[in-house]
Amino acid sequence: MNPLISWRTAVRQLGVVGVGLALGVLGVAGMPAFAQAQSADPPGRVARLSQFDGTVTFSPDGTGDWRYAERNRPLTTGDAVWVDRNSRAEMRVGGAAVRLGASTSVALSAVTDQNVQLNVTQGTVGLRLRGYDPNQPYEIDTPNLAFVPQQAGEYRLDVDPNGVTTVSVSRGAATVYGQGASVPLQQGQRVAFVGQNLTQQPAGPSRADAFDQWVRQLDAREDASVSARYVSRDMTGYESLDDYGTWQETPDYGAVWVPSDVPSGWAPYRTGHWTWVDPWGWTWVDDAPWGFAPYHYGRWAYVDARWCWVPGPVAVRPVYAPALVGWVNGSSGGNAWGVAFAAGGVGLAWFALGPHDVYRPAYHASSAYITNINRTTVIRTTNITNINNIYVNRNVIGAVVGVQPFGGMDLSGTGPKA
């Protein structure tokens, strides 16, 4: 058996009777990630720490380094998050909300277009699924079980690293898998599982605590989101737009989002930094608290002497991009700059791509991927590879953001892990 296979996959292939054999090969404590076939295209879905209180740290995949969390740095397969004592955090993965309580350790075993799998070794995790697709499952693994929702709903797991996992189903339905056994759970159930064979013990009545109250506040804000009327809820980061801008109708682009309280002369991709994130490469991390969705989806347009974000059609599933910019080269400002690469390439300056500019990634990607990632804009054609970019934004005063040559940074397409 593939050593990277998940409990859920083992159940599918071997049935419940065969799970014990599978787990014996896998080793329960490690709870390895769902096996993914190597693909030429990177995933179109990422995670983001949308908010956090107290001390929250993360470790990028493969680095072994722990650093303070950044709100707008994308998280993906292999990354890990630690929420310290007296702290809490919310992580968004497309349309799903993952709430993390104090003293919680979680690793992102898989964040792909096919599935999301989290490995929680201790702490408290709340999961809210607004929708359910059996072909894109969510799974939470703990030291003694695998939890798989079967419906949209609200769920909570309290994980004792000594081998007890308490599962609460506020709404929805789920299945818990253990060594040689599985247990279905329905709405209203709260069950404590001991050990790897799903031995049950009394969990006591469910009583709302401070974590539950916080989750309900987040749910209420999410349900009342104005931005959800204009963008897909599968767009990671949309939930931060409501407090920092307004939606307006334009004749050319339909509904657009206009950020509030930006300084005079501000332009997109001006306040932030570049960091290396596999498998995409150089990735923009913005400083603004709202600065995730507008920098990884849609396009920017300059309308009526101000910048506005054009999200694209609501019905199209959003596909994540590391930075939707055009790279330029040259030694002077304004129109003297010449476009060197459409996106992700090498240059000394950059500008936000406009609604009619095609994003062509510097990383390897198939033509189908390029088509899908550009369908999230207002480009209205199926033959994206033959479109010539217009680059209107580079002619806007102040749109081109330039820096001195990147001292010590390798922009050739390879670079550090993070």
What would you say this structure looks like, in words?
The radius of gyration is 22 Å and the shape is elongated. It has 418 residues and is mainly beta. The longest helix has 20 residues, at 7-26. It has helices spanning 7-26, 210-223, 293-296, 367-374; strands at residues 47-53, 56-59, 67-68, 80-83, 88-93, 96-100, 104-111, 116-129, 138-141, 146-149, 153-160, 164-171, 173-178, 181-186, 190-194, 199-201, 245-250, 254-259, 272-277, 281-286, 299-303, 306-310, 325-329, 338-341, 349-352, 401-402. It is 11% helix and 34% strand. The strands form 5 sheets. The chain has a 16-stranded mixed beta sheet that branches. Strands 24-23-25-26 form a 4-stranded antiparallel beta sheet, with no helix packed on it. It has a two-stranded antiparallel ribbon with strand order 17-18.
Q: Could you provide a short overview of the structure?
A:
With 418 residues, this protein is mainly β.
Overall pLDDT level: 83
Amino- and carboxy-terminal Cα gap: 32 Å
Category by helix and strand content:
mainly beta
Cα gyration radius (Å): 22 Å
Strand and helix order: HEEEEEEEEEEEEEEEEHEEEEHEEEEEHE
Q: Report on the biggest sheet.
A: 16 strands, mixed
Helix content: 10-25%
Poorly predicted regions: 1-38, 331-345, 404-418
Number of helices, where a helix is a run of at least 4 consecutive DSSP H or I residues: 4
- What overall geometry do the principal axes of the alpha carbons give? elongated
Task: State which percent range the strand residues make up.
Answer: 25-35%
Number of strands: 26
